[in-house]
Amino acid sequence: QVQLVESGGGLVQAGGSLRLSCAASGSIFSRNAMGWYRQAPGKQRELVAVIGSGGGINYADSVKGRFTISRDNAKNTVYLQMNSLKPEDTAVYYCNAAPPGSSWGQGTQVTVSS
User: Fold this and answer.
1) Residue 29's pLDDT is what?
2) In contact, 57 and 50? CB cutoff 8 Å
3) CA-to-CA distance for 104 and 4, rounded, in angstroms?
């Protein structure tokens, strides 16, 4: 059974920082690239950062230079350090394999006030 548990979201002022964590079941984590996705109200879910099983990393242009993705293979956990947050970063953030499987966690809400 696939399990994805996201945490670390919250309310922060523009310019602030948050660190998101995602604990994933071994079945999805061990051999897959992992990604952080976000979905803002009225918008489609989008991929913002991905890290390969070997550590290769890519970011969406909108977060490049501000967000940092990392993974701890021993803990089956992927992180997203978010700095210099902007109101347009407000969304529910999810993790999943990249490309994603059909099961999603509950996500974690990030709200950035101006």
Assistant:
1) 82
2) yes
3) 7
Tell me the one-letter amino acid at 96. N
Supply 22's token pair. Answer: 């995602």
Per-residue pLDDT at 68: 98
Q: What is the mean pLDDT of the chain?
A: 95
DSSP string, 29-73: HTTS-EEEEEE-TTS--EEEEEE-TT--EEE-TTTTTTEEEEEET
Q: Please state the rounded mean pLDDT for residues 46-70.
A: 96
Do the bridges between strand 108-113 and strand 10-13 make them parallel or antiparallel, or are there none, so unpaired? parallel
Quick check: 10 pLDDT over 90?
yes
Compute the radius of gyration of the chain from its Cα atoms. Answer: 13
